[in-house]
Amino acid sequence: MAVTGDETEAGSVAAGDLANSQMRNPTSNRLKAESGVGSLGSQKPLEDALQKRALRLMKNREAARECRRKKKEYVRCLENRVAVLEQQNKTLIDELRALKDIYQHKVE
DNA sequence: TCGCATGGACGTCATTCGCC
DNA sequence: GGCGAATGACGTCCATGCGA
Questions:
Q1: Is the pTM of this model over 0.85?
Q2: Where is the signal peptide, in residue numbers (predicted)?
């Protein structure tokens, strides 16, 4: 466990990640292209596009968190099930051994 | 003590899936 | 078909452990 949930919770983006994402994503250029806003004309469509993008990123960020939480829970459940089944298997093997033993003594 | 390997968590993008 | 939610893939950061 390196980074606790509390440290990076609730929209506090790690500085490195922020820089990273800005480096990788030529967002403003793409938005300009998408919104049809060039060097001239109203800034409104661009603002709308930026706002829409920010909202989408925020929602996706939260969705990703929830997705990871569910995945971890799922894995935990599977691990528990494995433990239970292994125990059952041991018990059944012991039972079988005991029954074989009883049978053997009766035959003799 | 330093450099490296590893693992966990994160954000973003691309894709898939289900609903309208 | 379009749209939003869910998820896989990827790159990054950070903490920790370990050997030189």
A1: no
A2: none
Footprint of strand B on the protein (CB under 7 A): A 1-5, 8-9, 11-14, 17-18, 21, 24-25, 27, 57-58, 60-61, 64-65, 68, 72
* A13/A85 Cα distance (integer angstroms): 42
Distance in Å, residue A51 CA to nucleotide B19 C1': 25
pLDDT at A71 over 60: yes
Token pair of A89 as six digits: 């298997």
Which residues does A96 contact at the CB level (< 8 Å), separation at least 6?
Answer: none
Residue A35 has a CB neighbour count (10 Å cut-off) of 19
Q: A37-68 pLDDT, tens per residue?
A: 444 456 776 777 788 888 899 999 999 999 89
Q: Which nucleotide is nearest to A18 (CA to C1')?
A: B11
Burial class from Cβ neighbours inside 10 Å (0-12, 13-18, 19+) for residue A27 reads: middle
Rg of chain A, C-alpha, whole Å: 29
